[in-house]
Structures are given as C-alpha cells and as structure tokens.
Amino acid sequence: MTYADTVKFLVAMIIMMNPLGSLSIFLQLTNKFPLLQQRKTAIKCGISITIIMVVTIWIGSQLLDLMGITISSFRFAGGIILLLTGLSMLQSKESPINHTPEDDIAAEERHSIAVVPLALPIIIGPGAISTLVIASNDYPDIILKTWLSALCVILALGMFIILFYGAFIARLVGESVMKVITRIMGMVIMAIAVGMLANGLIGLIPALH
To answer: 47 lies in which domain range?
Structure first.
C-alpha cells in the first residue's frame, strides 16, 4: 500500500463520512439535548464508528464471499452509490441514501441515537461501507489490514472531535461555508465514483481492458 493509496483511502473516507454534513444532522438531532448529553452522544457515536469501520475492514471480503458477490460487481454497485451521493452533495442536498426524514422521527423516539441513525447509516453509510469493503479486498495482508484499521481509528477520532465540539464549530464555520465545502467534496467523490465504475465494469467484462 503506497503513500498515494493511503491518501486516496483517507480522502475517500473523509468525503463519504461528510464531516460537516454529518455535523449538521448531529446538531439537528441533538438540539434539545443539554450540552453534557450531547457530548456523551458524541462519545458513543465515535466508539460506534470505530467498531463498524474496523469490523468491516476485517470481515467485509468474507461476507461478500459468503453471499457469492464478486468484488467487481460490488465495486460497480459501490460506484453507483458514490455517484448518487456526490451528485446529492453537489446540489447541496442531504443524501437520500444516507439520511431520511424517517430517521429524525425514529431518533426522537430513542433514548440513544449514537449508533442508529448517527453512526449508521448517517456517518457510515453505503458509500463508506463500499469503500471499506473494497479496501479490505485490495489489501488482504494482515499487516495492511492492521494499517487500514489504524487509519479508521484516526478517522473516527477526528469525527468524534468534530461532533464533541459541534456547536462551536458550526458557529465558527457558518452555514454558507459548510455548503460550499460540501459541493467541492461532492465533485471529488463523483470523480472517485467514475473510477470505481470503470474498474468494476472492466472486472465484469474483461474484454474491455
């Protein structure tokens, strides 16, 4: 796994986790919480994100094999998901794949929203899971998976810090800046999606190579 591969993985995951967009949803779901409870939710969410990502890195490929799904078909499907997510971000809309109004209603009825819907599927949605599974397949060596797991812990820690200091960050950045950054991230994720679609299609139809 080269330096460029590491950077590409981190960039893809950061974009798919959409820190500012996820922060906006987090604040919406916890706006009635006292600060202490809001921060406890951020801690639980950070731990949940870590567990979900690390487990996916270690058993993602095995689950695909168990279900008889080839990595090429999964890569192609993941590319479609990323493309739709990027298009939604480019239009400054909440992704219809990662978050729905029903999630808000369900969240209000739960004592804790840290795991569902915050960690899954808002922050770690289908696009992020696809990225993790593909990375798990591309780098099957135990040492490389350990490295990917360490990167996931760093990503989860960064997301936790953003949520923990969410109210302050939202005031500092401002809504207009958050929308601009989201659009830029949408363009980048669409470019990554096109590459995934092309690689998946070549894997499904070798004659195209």
So the answer is: 3-208
